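Support reply, case 0932

Customer input (verbatim):
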Amino acid sequence: MTGDDNSLAVLKEILNWTRAASFHSVKALLEEALPDLKSRAAFQMFDGSKSMDQVRIACKMSPNGLGALTQKCVAMGLLEVRDDKKRVRLFDLDDFGLNTSEDKSDA
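Our regenerated output:
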């Protein structure tokens, strides 16, 4: 195993441990930033392929409301803004059981 292969293996192991150790805190952060179904649906749509207008129209949100949501999520480290100005979520809500299709009080 070369030095590069060994370094990559160590980095992958660190990543796995970091993911496991951070799961509950990331879930809590997502729940705080996205308290309702509309904000969760909007967040989930930010996969890098949709524009702000497409998300805003699909989720029936005001431009100011969606802008505030995305600014908060970027500041919290949940979204990133690409060079082409499209937003990309860093986490998939399905991975955290934060389903956007039904009210969590029904679960």
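We compared this against your earlier run and they match. Two observations from our side: The domain at 3-99 is CATH 1.10.10 (Arc Repressor Mutant, subunit A). Confidence is low (pLDDT under 50) at residues 103-107. Please reopen the case if you see a mismatch on your end.
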